[in-house]
Amino acid sequence: MLEIKNLNVGYGEVQVLWDIDMEVKEGEVVALVGSNGAGKTTLLYTISGLLHPMSGSIRFNGQEIAGLPSEEIVDLGITQVPQGRKLFAGMTVKENILMGAYHRKDKKQIQKDYEFVLELFPRMAERLSQPAGSLSGGEQQMCAVARGLMAAPKLLMIDELSLGLAPIIVENIYEAVSEVIKRGTTVLIVEQDVMLALEQADRAYVLDVGHMRMSGPAKEMMDNPVIKEAYLGL
Q1: For the chain, domain boundaries
Q2: What are the percentages of helix, strand and coil residues in the chain, rounded to 5?
Q3: What is the pLDDT of residues 82-129, one digit of tens each?
């Protein structure tokens, strides 16, 4: 589904990612893990079209998308739930959620998807008329994921889902994401919490200071001594 080869990315003349190779297959859950500042968000921004690469290739379902405008990439089926939620604070929860479907025309399916996300996140159904900026951190993350799902993505990318949230809230959100996966959505999870990400994923990649250091089945990586020492403190 997603194929990245020899990707180099920077901000101006400052290079941040070097020769990145990565693949996400249809129906997979793939984790991209690494410490703060490793370049994980930069990679997502590049896939989403918010950054243009210096060189390299990004192909989605066989089509080259490197350098395409972000709105065209969304239309192709890639949606990003950004780090920090990035909600429209003055708009209601309902308005924020429906913003995810701004580019869609299929009104009946939009309504079905809307009902689905409210089933996934009952708290959102209770707060539809509430300003999004007044929600708790966990509720804002639920709203952000719901908004992302309203785009009907083929590939859903979630950046730092657990950051700053209580464990019970993280568990609830990951349970909702599991339901999305069952419906056939491919998911790329970006996390600093390495063990949490590996528990959710089929495969994983380790990004370290702009270089892809390791990849493999998530279960095998959980037992890898290098991973345990570098990221789990074992």
Answers
A1: 1-77+153-166+185-234, 86-152
A2: 40, 25, 35
A3: 887 789 999 999 999 999 999 899 999 999 999 999 999 999 999 999
Find out whether 45 and 204 touch, Cβ atoms under 8 Å. Answer: no
| 98 neighbors 114 (Cβ within 8 angstroms) | yes
Residue with tokens 């379902």: 61
Please state which CATH class domain 1-77+153-166+185-234 belongs to: alpha beta
**Is the model's pTM score more than 0.70?**
yes
Q: Tell me which of 25-29, 118-122, 191-195 is least confident.
A: 191-195
Determine the number of helices (DSSP H) and then strands (DSSP E) in the chain: 10, 10
- Whole-angstrom CA distances from 185 to 11, 29, 79, 115, 219 are 31, 9, 11, 17, 21
**Whose CA is closest to 7, among 27, 32, 26?**
32
- Residue position matching structure tokens 């809230």: 169
Q: Are 33 and 205 in contact (CB under 8 A)?
A: yes
